[in-house]
Design goal:
With 410 residues, the protein is of the alpha+beta class. It is built from twelve helices and 16 strands. It folds into two domains: 275 residues, Beta-lactamase (3-Layer(aba) Sandwich); 108 residues, no CATH class. Helix content is 28%, strand content 17%. 50% of the residues are buried.
Amino acid sequence: MSSLPITPPETQGLSADRLNHIPRFFSAYLEAGKLPHMATLISRGGDIVHLGLQGQMQIGQDRPISEDTLFRIYSMTKPITALAAMILFEEGRIRLEHAVSRYIPEFSDPQVWVGGTSDAPELAPAAREITLLDLFTHTSGLTYGFLRQHPVDGIYRAEKIGEGHEPLQEMVRRMAPLPLVFSPGERWNYGHSTDVLGAIVEIVSGQSLDVFFKTRIFEPLGMVDTDFHVPSEKLDRLPACYMKNPKGGAPLLFDGAGTASHLFQTRPTLLNAGGGLISTLSDYHRFALMLLKGGALDGVRLVSPKTIDFMTRNHLPGGNSILGMGDKTFAEGRMHGHGFCLLGSVLEDLIAFGQPGSEGTYAWGGLASTYFWVDPLEEMICIQMTQLVPSNSYPLRTQFQQLAYAALEI
């Protein structure tokens, strides 16, 4: 029996039979040994109408996941960091047009890769400096080393950027003189932009990112299980994470469950603003519900409705196709028809997307195949959690969207 309040779906205009098809559909993945588990949650009008919990904490063990299972949400951390920055924006402490160098002087002379190799790059001055808006929209020219799509990615790997051995501000300052993939504003590229934004939150607020998150977001929203690490009394709620086997067959262990996990037992040195949080279905639903309700929940306001409206619009100039969002370097999901808002993707063209939904829906996912979206038109929140790296191993997200919208009756 769930302790989360579940509302009869018919009262919110959804079919119970069709919602029940969601776990039946994903059971095929579990039975084939492709996924360890699958958790899904759907709400409408703020009422939870579907909660699906399938599979085990670890493959081969009889320990079912539950509604309080803790998931590595990776890049679903990014919308939380973006909200933190906009809290400071509302206080007048930052501006989106400000150059990053205003807060982190090491970014004052950006150089762009124009040729050569990772070992011998040819550089030229960037057309302009990186702004805070570039960080929000991933148009900064920063990248990720793990993408392995550009020579600059190799430079990041050689410099051990993002490997977790140093505090956030130190990593960001060390990254600043490295070449950009392109001049800021030229196009879209997934990378460490949100980490720089998180460092600015620390610098401006005078607080570490985990303290800012806790006091300004998590505690006000009642997100009791979201943090950068898992306290010892909660470790038994952390499932194993897997990676797709490149040779086929059963997935490989990526990080162990509970005390066998080596990554989350203590507060990390690097507070990864772009991908370091652990959370639950319930906690993330409260975060998404605050967004849907215009920045407030249960009488507690984090930001104004105008700020949420501003954040959830497409901020890519000239349209997403011009800036290259969703090109081959990006593996978080199918991005046809999407732009990018300050929280993640935003659906701009339903026909280009290729399946039912609502324009204006904003969403984002994480490396281990977690995903959420908020549909303001239908007042729907949908969250999907499993633990399989990488996130494009299977079309889980689009399939979940198909099934969720198929359950709508009015």
